[in-house]
Structures are given as C-alpha cells and as structure tokens.
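Blinded run. Sample ID left blank on purpose so nobody reads anything into the name before looking at the predicted structure. Input follows.
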Amino acid sequence: MLDILKNEYVPEHPVMDLGEIIQLMKEQVMLGEEPSQIDFLFDNTAMALAELYFQWKDFGRLDCNSGENVWEKVTGFTASKEALAFLLRQLTDIKNQVPDGDGIRESVELWKNEDSGEIDPGWLEHLDWLIERLALEQA
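Blinded prediction complete.
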C-alpha cells in the first residue's frame, strides 16, 4: 500500500484525499467492500490508511520510515464523512470478526494466542483506538 501511495499517488497529490486513496486501493485490489471480498490484505490496508490519516492529524506530517523524501511533499490530508465511514465500517467488521468467504477473519486469527484463543490485548487496544478516533472524526 505504501509503495502504491509513494509511487502513484503522492507525487501528483500533495494534499492527500482519503476518498481518492480508498478508490485507488480498490482499483489496485488492496480493498474490497463485500464480505466475499474480505481478505487479510484488505484488513491491513484499512488499518494502515486509518493509521496514516491519524498520523497526519496528530503530527502534521507522514513518517513512513521508508527513507523517501516523497512523504515530505504531502502538505495536507483531507477526508470526507463517506471515506471515514467506509474505514470505520471496515475496522468495526474486523473487530466484530465478520467472517470472510472462508468463514474466518484471517487478520483476527493471526492475532489470537494459539493456546488461549484470546486476541492479543495490545492489538485489540490499537484497533479500538482507531475505531474510536474514526467515529469521533465522522461525527
């Protein structure tokens, strides 16, 4: 996802738009909308987009640890209510473990302790934080 943004989006868009990025990620098959399209990669993309957006909101810059100067070209990051609602729905579905076509939510399964079956509390706390922030932003 970061490579797509770095190479295809940011050079032409110093002000990033979450709705445009979501559309680009759908075109690149990095996001989907239907339960049959749920994929581990899509969950990671949705979480990463929320993280990038809040990194911008909190610090006014993007630090993607890539050593690339392209991120310094970003001068803004906008988000419509619809784009925020899309990400909120995606992350809420992850938290609620809405199953994919295979009947599981792979991203959640990977964060479960093999012995207890409990989700890693740190990961769940981070997911909850993203969901709360998206809900507040959308309000």
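Unblinding after everyone has recorded impressions. The mean pLDDT is 88.
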